[in-house]
Amino acid sequence: MLQVLPTPAKSWAPALSAMALAALAAYGVVSWFLQIQSLSAPASLAPVAQTSSASAAVAIDTGRVAQALGAPLAAAAGSGTEAVAAYQWTLLGVVAGASGKGSALLSVDGQAPKAYLPGQTVAPGWVLHSVGHRLARLAPAGQDSPSVTLELPKPSQ
Question: Which of 19, 28, 90, 98 is 20 to 30 A from 44, alpha carbon to alpha carbon?
Answer without folding.
Answer: 28
